[in-house]
Amino acid sequence: MPITTHLPRYPLAFLPTPLHPLPRLSELLASSFQPPASNFQLLVKRDDQTGLATGGNKTRKLEFLVADALAQGCDTLITTGAVQSNHCRQTAAAAARAGLACELVLGGQPPAQPNGNYLLDMLCGAKFHWTTRENRLNRLHELANELRAAGRRPYFITYGGSDPVGACGYAAALEELREQTAALGVVPDAIVFPSSSGGTQAGLVAGAWALGWNVPILGISIDESEAELQTMVAELASLTVARLGKPHTFAPADIQVSADYLGAGYSVVGDLEREAIGLLARTEGVLLDPVYTGRAFGGLLDILRHRPNRFGKPVRSIIFWHTGGSPALFAYAGELV
Ligand SMILES: Cc1ncc(COP(=O)(O)O)c(C=O)c1O
Q1: Is 80 exceeded by the pLDDT of residue 124?
Q2: What is the rounded average pLDDT of the residues 185-211?
Q3: Which ligand 1 atom minimizes the distance to the CA of 324?
Q4: Residue % of the chain over a pLDDT of 90
Q5: Which of 26, 31, 32, 85 is catalytic?
Q6: Where, residue-wise, is CATH 3.40.50.1100 in the chain?
Q7: pLDDT tens by residue, 59-114
Q8: Which tens digits make up the pLDDT trace of 237-287?
Q9: Whether residue 324 has its Cβ less than 6 Å from ligand 1
Q10: What is the pLDDT of residue 306?
Q11: pLDDT for 289-309, tens place per residue?
């Protein structure tokens, strides 16, 4: 029986998302391996195509979060993020789909010219509250109290939808991927993706445990040290498997993370991101984003070019999980070309 069948789910995504090879880029990379590889395959799992207001990884989490909000009789989704938050944009769109209101606490100042995700938040009817980056979670708690005092029923969604309810979306996603790899006859040496608030990775780790699938799951950290991210993901994965009815306690050392690509900090676009975004667009016509997938794909390219044995000897099949984010490309135009 599928591992999340017993949990309430509100359909928002077009599933399954495609899993497809990147033949031109795979060949290019394989020719640079020492010795060159003849049968190396890089594949991409297209969660940028989940379909909700341009898609992305939060849509899978929101299927479980919105179902929980409706079950609790809530009337408003509230959450927080950066001005260009993909999570906030998908939350605003999910609220619209479910007939709920959406209020967002954003860090910083309202931009003079709405663009990218912030523009899409507006189009989806979200209401905004501005504060400093450090104060966002406090302000979100305050907002929940203000709305309750006004007779509303807010549903509180933490950073990135990364709680045990949301993470179940990625446990279900791993099951979807396992079926796709089995149908294609692919045995992945690793699954690689950006990891930030940890819900995607926790869900994948929880799903692998629940399914008994021993596949390496490597999160490329976007903004946390290796130790912090491992601890966060281990705790969240432990809570998530409990929801799946397969209890287990993960230790930080069970979680595979690389924090080698933090660059100059969160959302600062450097050569690593620029090269990765340009290379994938030019060779395969696939668009990454400047903050998350650009950094993670840049990290993956670096590992494949300089340490391919990290994934197996010889490395054969790697899956890059594309978690979305392309609307932010437009807000970062000046830093990309
Ligand atoms: C495009 C994209 N990729 C990856 C992530 C990171 O996912 P998680 O927060 O579940 O670690 C985010 C989070 O905002 C995102 O927007």
Answers
A1: yes
A2: 98
A3: 1
A4: 95
A5: 85
A6: 19-55+163-336, 58-161
A7: 999 999 999 999 999 999 999 999 999 999 999 999 999 999 999 999 999 999 99
A8: 999 999 999 999 999 999 999 999 999 999 999 999 999 999 999 999 999
A9: yes
A10: 93
A11: 999 999 999 999 999 999 988
**Above 80 in pLDDT, residue 1?**
no
Is 85 among the catalytic positions? Answer: yes
Distance from C-alpha of 208 to C-alpha of 268, rounded to nearest angstrom: 32
Residue-level pLDDT at 173: 98
Query: Distance between CA atoms of 164 and 268, rounded to whole angstroms?
Result: 29
Ligand 1 pocket member 131 (CB < 6 A): no
Q: In the 3-class helix/strand/coil scheme, how is 116-174 assigned residue by residue?
A: HHHHHHHHCCCEEEEECCCCHHHHHHHHHHHHHHCCCCEEECCHHHCCHHHHHHHHHHH
pLDDT value at residue 35: 84
87 in contact with ligand 1, CB cutoff 6 A:
yes
Measured in Å, residue 81 CA sits from the centre of ligand 1 at: 11
Tell which atom from ligand 1 comes closest to the C-alpha of 81. Answer: 14
Q: What is the residue whose two structure tokens read 């709920």?
A: 100
Yes or no: say if 336 and 64 are a contact pair by the CB < 8 Å rule.
no
> Which of 48, 91, 158, 200, when mutated, tests ligand 1's pocket best, judged by the most ligand atoms within 8 Å of its CB?
200
Report the side by side order of strands in the sheet with 41-46.
19-21, 41-46, 317-322, 190-195, 217-221, 256-258
Kindly state the tokens that stand for 116: 């990218």
Ligand 1 test: best mutation among 91, 106, 201, 292, most atoms within 8 Å of CB?
Answer: 292
Kindly give the number of the ligand 1 atom that is closest to the alpha carbon of 48: 1
User: In the CATH hierarchy, which fold is given to the domain comprising 58-161?
Assistant: Rossmann fold (3.40.50)
Q: What is the per-residue pLDDT for 217?
A: 98
Q: Compute the distance between CA of residue 220 and CA of residue 201 in angstroms, rounded to an integer.
A: 10
* Cα(36) to centroid(ligand 1), Å: 33
pLDDT in the model for residue 309: 85
196 lines ligand 1 (CB under 6 A): yes
The residue whose CB lies within 8 Å of the most ligand 1 atoms, and thus the one to mutate among 46, 48, 58, is 58
Topology annotation, domain 19-55+163-336: Rossmann fold (3.40.50)
